Amino acid sequence: MTGFDILEHTADVGVRARGASTKDVFEQATLGLLDITGASGSGAGERVDIEVSANDLAGALVDWLEEVLYLQDARDSVVTGLGVERADDSGARGWVEIVPRDRELEGTAVKAITYHQLNVSRQPDGTWVAIVYLDI
Question: Which residues of the chain have pLDDT under 70?
Answer without folding.
Answer: 1-2, 9
